[in-house]
Amino acid sequence: MKSNGLNDIRKAFREFYVSKEHYPAKSASLIPQNDKSLLLINSGMAPLKRYFAGVDTPPAKRMTTCQKCLRTGDIDNVGKTARHGTFFEMLGNFSFGDYFKEQSLTWGWEFIKDVLELPEDKVWATVYKDDDQAVEIWKKLGMPEERIVRLGKDDNFWEIGLGPCGPCSEIYYDRGPEYGCGKPDCKPGCDCDRYVEFWNHVFTQFSKEEDGSYSDLAHPNIDTGMGLERIACIMQGVDSIFDIDTIRYILDGVLEMSGVEYEKEGTEKTDVSVRIVTDHLRAMVFMIADGIIPSNEGRGYVLRRLIRRAARHGKLLGIKGGFLADLADRVIEVSGEAYPELVEKKDYIKKNIDIEEKKFQATLDQGVNVLDGYIKEMQEQGLTVLDGEKTFKLYDTYGFPPEVTEEILADYGFTADQEGFAANMQKQKEQARAGRRDTAQVAWEKAGIDVPQTHFLGYRMSDCEGTVLAVTVDGEPVETLKEGQTGTVYLDQTVFYAESGGQIYDTGFMYTKNGKAEVTGVTKSNNVFAHEVKVVEGTLSIHDNAECRIDQPRRHRVARNHTATHLLQAALRQVVGDHVQQAGSYVSDQMLRFDFTHYEALTKEQIAQVEALVNEKIDEFLTVTMQETTIDEARKKGAMALFGEKYGDVVRMVSCGDFSIELCGGTHVGNTGEIGAFKLLSETGVASGVRRIEAVTGTGVMAILNGDQAILEEASQALKCAKDQVPARAKALNEELKAANREIAAYKKAEMGSAADSMLADAKEIGGVRLVTRKFEDTDVSDLRTLSDDLKKDNQNMAMVFAAVNGGKLVFLVSLTDDLVAKGLHAGKMIKEIAAACGGGGGGKANMAQAGAKDPSKLEDAFKLAEELIK
Q1: Which positions ≥6 away from 780 have C-beta within 8 Å?
Q2: Per residue in 594-609, pLDDT tens?
């Protein structure tokens, strides 16, 4: 048997099936596409389900992959066993209605014998108990009948609910009797560790119907899966996935950094921590490379949990400070050739890990202190379960993850009240939900109005006629609004866009036969539009026909800014990276604001590139199309959607040529050329991992340019030079100012030197102590500290009390030579009384202290007090 490295096995599998005319597909992202049933890809066939179901057409009838997978169901067992891991790779070959059972097993046996060179007498096969065909195929391939084991439905029949299913044949490796249970009938299917399953061939040939019956599929399929880490264990003769060459290299890095010993007597506890850090490192690196960032929801929370769990166990190993980002290099080193995205995104991966780890360190220290107090209380009271309210407080107040709480409690044999935690969490959600109730909904519910959903016509029309269904003032229903009154109007149909999706509302006017009302705001709840109006002429009443006209120039400015946000997001993904996702936006007629996921500030070069790319797409006059379609069709075309947003069966897809495709309910221009121009004003951080861009378009750019022009004009006049000479003139003046400041500093230093001489001459001797008191005008306190230090270098028995008066403000400095401090004098105590004489206060060290005061007129009293204190 060869002793192949993990990377060699992966490569050999791919090359073997390519030689059998299989299309070698890249591993799909860990983020499922078009599959709401999964949070993360957890098997080799998961990304291919739509091919097996016939929904999508595969790129070829034969495919082979090595799929990145992640499972967190057994996360609590990771590190405690030899086999449990969160991240793993699954080798697979697939047939979509092409070859079937005999060909699949024949090629599988060929790979085992000729490529892996496994000892044939160590290989066993299991089949479904009624699958005589599979038994005959194995016998034909040379497998002795005594090594073919028939098992029942639970072991050798693959099905999930209704639809495609079928029997399977699993291939096992016999590790030898030393791993077995000693029973004479021990064979695959036994609960002992002797036989290891490493490859499963699933023969999808039936469809399970609603009545429980099975019908034959017209085109049977093949789906095989071989755990790469598991076959590597067999090939390398090791018992644990943590001893495989690539994973052991990462583990050795953990050992080097922590300095702990591994798998020695008495190291069982630290061994678990070493394995947890090793496993979680692999998972976090691959997750971040696929665009997942730490967050408090969904797959982002899985990543956050893995990073924080690894960080905690690193701390238990004695590793000081952040370390995970450095160890990530080892993961990238051993897997980068097979997954080049790891190398391409190396800096991005390490930055995200580093940010999250540092954030957690502060949380961990604070939370552990609080939890330690709770544990002490439990021990004193004889309790073993931490109540849900305290578990929730750790999470809600201190950001301490509940799973970390449970892990720490387990070390003491304690548990957490999970039900109580969940109840407190639900209570908080309900309170938050109540606080977020839409004001429009609250208003018409309070008024007792039963208003149907509003028909919105504003995508294709700028005016329409609507019937007034209801009117309210301060939440109370009324029949009529009179001139000068404000209220809320509900119509059967409207062209006014209600604020939503980050886009501001439309404004304009409503005209009735009896009056005119200005529309100042529009909100909606459950598709009921509430128009805030002020009647400017006549009246507006229930049942009136109202002609609605939007402010078109304002709508156009909003549309320009909204389409520009779509171009901006596409440009950011192209320039900064495809990990960029929208995290919020605001679009008005004045400007646009776009929040996006990214871990650090953009460089000047990136900002310039993004701005240039958006303007390039504006100049290309790309056609902007708005189309209603199904969510599946939109995703097929690559439409960007907000993660976590709930979409209906029908969605609105907005395309700017092929450059940007997004799901969006806002209003847009018909051609990117209508935007005119795009100017990026600022790029700032708003939260951990979230950046914000503010920008303007069209005439908004002109307003910025006009403002800048006015500033430049004013600067040129002040500097008495032409506008194009302002930078050079400002630079020259700055250099002149620096030179002048240097001259002033030199003059001050010389002046201080001469002042030192005169102060020494004027010093008063009081009981063997020379006291120097001096008032300084317009002098920085730092200069006085320097002066006192210089005097103390060459003198002893000296006390200095300096006062700096700057613009009516008074600051005292008391400084003592070291010999006076040794005799018991204390500058901090002296200055409290000296400053108090002028209405101030302060303190400091024994040798030097500083204090502020309010009344310079009493300075002489303060100096006299200094003399008394010396006496």
Answers
A1: 804, 806
A2: 999 887 889 999 999 9
DSSP symbol at 821: H
In the structure encoding, which two tokens stand for residue 255, read together?
């050992």
What type of residue sits at position 395?
Y
Q: Quick check: 28 pLDDT over 80?
A: yes
Q: Render pLDDT for 440-452 as a digit per residue (tens, 0 to 9).
A: 455 555 556 678 8
Cα torsion at 831, 832, 836, 837 (round to 10°)? -40
- Distance between CA atoms of residues 405 and 675, nearest Å: 53
AA identity, residue 25:
A
Q: Would you give the DSSP letter of residue 112? A: I
Residues 6+ apart with CB under 8 A from 187: 124, 149, 195
Angle, CA of 603, 607 and 609, to the nearest 5°? 115
Residue 437 has pLDDT above 60, yes or no: no
H-helix or E-strand spanning residue 336 = none
Q: How far apart are CA 388 and CA 418, in angstroms?
A: 6
- Give the whole-angstrom CA distance, residue 769 versus residue 869: 11
Instruction: Please compute, for residue 121, the number of CA atoms within 13 A of its CA located in the half-sphere on the CB side.
Output: 1
**Cα-Cα-Cα-Cα dihedral sign, residues 396, 398, 399, 402:** negative
Q: What is the pLDDT of residue 438?
A: 46
Alpha-carbon distance 827 to 835, whole Å? Answer: 12
Tell me how far apart the alpha carbons of residues 660 and 113 are, in angstroms, rounded to a whole number. 50
- Per the prediction, the chain carries an average pLDDT of 89
**Which residues, in sequence order, are CB contacts of 158 under 8 Å at separation 6+?**
165, 166, 167, 168, 202, 204, 223
**Residue 697, amino acid:** T
Most confident of 429-433, 436-440, 559-563, 867-871: 559-563
| Structure-token pair, residue 75 | 């996360």
pTM strictly above 0.85:
no
Tell whether the model's pLDDT for residue 176 goes beyond 70. Answer: yes
Whole-angstrom Cα distance, residue 446 to residue 420? Answer: 34
Q: Quote the CA–CA distance of 543 and 467 in Å, as a whole number.
A: 6
| Rounded Cα gap, residues 208 and 206, in angstroms | 6
Provide the pairing of β-strand 214-227 with 769-777: unpaired
pLDDT tens for 741-787 read 888 777 766 666 666 777 888 888 888 899 999 888 878 888 888 88
Q: Under DSSP, is residue 451 helix (H, G, I), strand (E, B) or coil?
A: coil
The CB density around residue 378, as the number of other CB atoms within 10 Å, is 18
Count CB neighbours of 526 within 10 A: 11
